[in-house]
Design brief:
CATH superfamily of the largest domain: NAD(P)-binding Rossmann-like Domain
Number of helices: 18
Largest sheet: 6 strands, parallel
Structural class: alpha/beta
CATH class of the largest domain: Alpha Beta
Helix content: 40-55%
Bound molecules: nicotinamide-adenine-dinucleotide
CATH topology of the largest domain: Rossmann fold
Number of domains: 3
Number of strands: 14
């Protein structure tokens, strides 16, 4: 099947590459010519394990093509996925200007043949109706199409694996013809993995994505609430949460305290869901509390640093991990950025290292020192702050770190080390909720 992917970012590039690997003929479009140029040379513009190899494989078979020209691709494709970014507006609601622009471009290029327009970007409920209205408003020909919602659940860092072995495939379609086309798109994956397929209404599909992300964010904020309770009451959050998570109705996954969630999805998606609730006249205080606890997680962590170091001005501080989570180069809304900016404004000299995110970080915070390995970053500092749970950090030589530091003080924002062991090694060690 001929498939178009509009927006070749984390979601579009992974989805397009995997669909090509299933045997479809996929053309990925992006309006960033630099991105397309890189992809044409066989290089992935993002770090995602296994992706570059899969791009190379499918480029070679001819199943995967890249272009910055949307028109011919719309004309030539049966199924068109919209995978553009949906950033937050100032009031928290999703900014749908990129989705609208793509809908208009589809309208201008749609021909008389039936097409399925698939909204894969995360959008508020009822967006598909607006996409349909837009296409009808701006199309020249008698456009024959359906708009489908097919939310994406991949996680950065395991995007290829998540797409190849999904927990579920959600298809929100209101016409039989569109449902059948979508099942055809996913047939190779369904046959291979037996992934559960939920065929629902378009509006339900749109709400499933916002609901899932709000629930996951709630789990993280709940873990941080327990951590804050443990710190005041003298208990250990990991002991408490591990036991709570053993209840199969609750589950252990995502019940980890830390410096809060960041990234390009949770903060904006829960803000957009909160806005949706307000528009629908529903109490949004649960979501507001999740946001408040998330903000307090990083603030309380910073207070811990300030309390221990007393004066921040002119202190050398190492920060390990800038990406918003492990196995990605994505720094959008990363808690580390907030932390570095605050410590810097208090006069600290920051020495930073991240295995994949430094190129992106240098654009956002150019005026700190970056190092090519963690030990170089730690050399001569008075404190070490861990902001991302990279495996590389879990395996560091702690004895060597102690020798490299002027004063062996560690603030572990991701609880990657054991407090008792750290104490035994002679560190002053601060985790979260421990
Ligand atoms: P991204 O910023 O990495 O990629 C979006 C791409 O769209 C960019 O390359 C941009 O240049 C391109 N684009 C924008 N307007 C365009 C246009 N008119 N024509 C062609 N290309 C255009 O974003 P992402 O992280 O891939 O997220 C895309 C959507 O998927 C968002 O709605 C996001 O919430 C959702 N989502 C993201 C993830 C994730 O982990 N990143 C997971 C699930 C869902």
């Amino acid at each position: 099947m001929k498939i178009a992917i509009i927006g070749t970012g984390y979601v579009g590039l992974t989805t397009g590459t995997c669909l090509a690997d299933f045997g479809h003929q996929v053309t990925c479009v992006d309006n960033d010519p630099k991105k397309i140029e890189k992809l044409k040379q066989g290089k992935s513009p993002i770090f995602e394990p296994g992706l570059e190899e899969l791009i190379a494989k499918n480029k070679q078979t001819g199943n995967l093509i890249f272009t910055d020209e949307i028109g011919p691709v719309v004309k030539d494709s049966e199924v068109i996925f919209i995978c553009v970014n949906t950033p937050p507006k100032e009031d928290g609601h999703a900014d749908l200007k990129y989705v609208e622009k793509v809908a208009r471009e589809i309208a201008e290029n749609i021909n008389g043949e039936y097409k399925v327009i698939v909204d894969k970007s995360t959008v508020p409920v009822k967006t598909a109706e607006k996409v349909k209205e837009t296409i009808l408003r701006y199309s020249i020909d008698q456009a024959k199409f359906d708009v489908v919602s097919n939310p994406e659940f991949l996680k950065e860092g395991t995007a290829v694996k998540d797409t190849m072995e999904p927990d579920r495939i959600v298809i929100g379609a209101d016409s039989q013809k569109a449902k059948e086309k979508m099942l055809e798109v996913y047939k190779p994956l369904i046959d291979k993995t037996n992934a559960p397929v939920k065929i629902v209404s378009v509006r339900s599909a749109e709400l499933i994505k916002h609901g899932a992300n709000t629930f996951l964010a709630t789990k993280i904020s709940f873990a941080n609430l327990i951590a804050q309770t443990c710190e005041e009451a003298g208990a250990d959050a990991l002991e408490v949460l591990e036991a709570i998570g053993l209840d199969e109705r609750i589950g252990r996954y995502f019940l980890n305290p830390g410096i809060g969630f960041g990234g390009s999805c949770f903060p904006k998606d829960i803000a957009a869901y909160k806005k949706t609730l307000e528009i629908l006249g529903i109490d949004s205080s649960l979501v507001e509390s999740v946001q408040k606890i998330n903000e307090s997680a990083i603030e309380k962590f910073l207070q811990k640093i300030e309390k221990e170091l007393w004066v921040i001005d002119n202190k050398e501080i190492a920060v390990l991990g800038i990406a918003f989570k492990a196995n990605t180069d994505d720094i959008r809304n990363a808690p580390a950025l907030k932390l570095i900016k605050k410590l810097k404004s208090d006069g600290a000299n920051i020495q930073a290292y991240d295995p994949q995110a430094m190129e992106n970080a240098k654009k956002e915070i150019p005026d700190i020192k970056y190092f090519d390995n963690p030990y170089e970053a730690i050399k001569g500092v008075e404190a070490l702050v861990i902001c991302t749970e990279w495996d590389e950090f879990k395996n560091l030589d702690l004895q060597k770190i102690k020798e490299l530091m002027v004063t062996p003080i560690i603030f572990d924002g991701r609880n990657i080390f054991n407090p008792a062991k750290m104490k035994e090694l002679g560190f002053r060690y601060y985790g979260v909720g421990r």
